[in-house]
Design brief:
By secondary structure, this protein is an all-beta fold. It is built from 1 helix and 28 strands.
Length: about 350
């Protein structure tokens, strides 16, 4: 489905973009990011590592084997620092482009106290097991670099907060509570900063994007969206949102039980949250090129091309929602043609 397509870019899909070497494999691509030379970095699971490709999808090299507990978010800053968010280890490791360690934010292996304890009967999502907000980190999710170099971290699976740091990793402030009101979260998942310094947070299980000032003041929310997993902003100020599949019968904290299937998709919004375009959402052919099973991360290169990473194994194959034949649907490139 296309909406106001004349005002939004048009793309051609390259579904088989990744040229995997014979001795390299993975079951999920949890994060995707692009460096200053338009090389594409994938953060993978099973095994957990960083894979690097050129724009045409040809493999360059890998690093990070045996470093990560549970790969999740990946960000490359303007200075080409690589921020790897490990939500199983409650930490963020920062590297050079070649994988040399720069610093670690958080204490590896030590979650902050939020009263989180996974309960057997989950009504909507395990984030409902969080009892109260805490400090950094409890199963952190993603990181954004602000125009002034400060760092913002979404801390969502075991917490309900956004944490603000200096460029050197010193904590400045935290904000967020449990709930559905302004400044409250049910799984802050993706995060980005726009050219104005606004902080955009994917409040995933509340089906919205919340917008904050640099110091955490609530400014607005965009609700014409469901299950936003990640977002990125292009050179024209358009926001691209990867929205995760919510199957029929599953619940939202704000919309209740789903009476129909809501497939994964990408939405393109202007800087006020107005939807310009949507693509890739199919319940019948979600495994086909250009469509999505479990979009989890999204990135844009200097040419305006879009990369969408998916986690079909963790999200859909293990619960039995897809079969093995469709489980390799992990990374697609969309080439901008207008």
């Amino acid at each position: 489905m296309r909406m106001n397509a004349a005002t939004a870019p048009v793309f051609d899909v390259i579904a088989d973009w990744e040229k995997l070497p014979a001795d390299v494999s993975h079951k999920d691509v949890t994060g995707v990011a692009v460096d200053s030379k338009d090389r594409v970095y994938l953060f993978t699971r099973f095994p957990h590592r960083i894979l690097i490709y050129n724009r045409d999808g040809h493999f360059i090299k890998s690093w990070g084997d045996d470093l990560f507990t549970m790969a999740h978010g990946l960000t490359i800053g303007p200075d080409d620092r690589v921020y790897c968010v490990d939500n199983g280890d409650h930490s963020i490791r920062v590297f050079t482009l070649d994988g040399e360690p720069v610093m670690t934010i958080g204490t590896p292996g030590e979650p902050s106290d939020t009263g989180y304890e996974r309960l057997p009967n989950i009504e909507v999502h395990a984030c409902e097991c969080i009892q109260y907000p805490g400090g950094p980190f409890n199963r952190c999710t993603n990181l954004a670099v602000a125009p002034n170099g400060e760092l913002y971290v979404a801390d969502g699976y075991g917490n309900c907060r956004v944490h603000r740091f200096t460029a050197d990793g010193e904590l400045i402030q935290s904000w967020g509570e449990i709930g559905v009101g302004p400044g409250e979260f049910h799984l802050p998942h993706g995060i980005a900063c726009d050219a104005q310094g606004r902080v955009l947070v994917c409040d995933r299980e509340n089906d919205r994007i919340q917008i904050f000032s640099p110091d955490g003041e609530f400014l607005d929310q965009w609700t014409d969206i469901y299950r936003p997993s990640d977002l990125t902003i292009d050179a024209d100020g358009l926001t691209y949102v990867a929205e995760l599949w919510r199957p029929k019968g599953k619940k939202s904290f704000v919309h209740g039980e789903m009476m129909v299937d809501h497939p994964g998709r990408v939405s393109v919004l202007d800087d006020t949250g107005r939807v310009l375009d949507r693509w890739g959402g199919s319940s019948d052919e979600r495994h086909m090129p250009g469509n999505f099973i479990a979009p989890h991360s999204i990135a844009i290169d200097s040419h305006g091309d879009v990369y969408v990473a998916e986690v079909p194994y963790s999200f859909a194959l293990r619960p039995g929602w897809i079969d093995e034949a469709h489980a390799d649907h992990q990374i697609q490139k969309f080439i901008r043609r207008s």
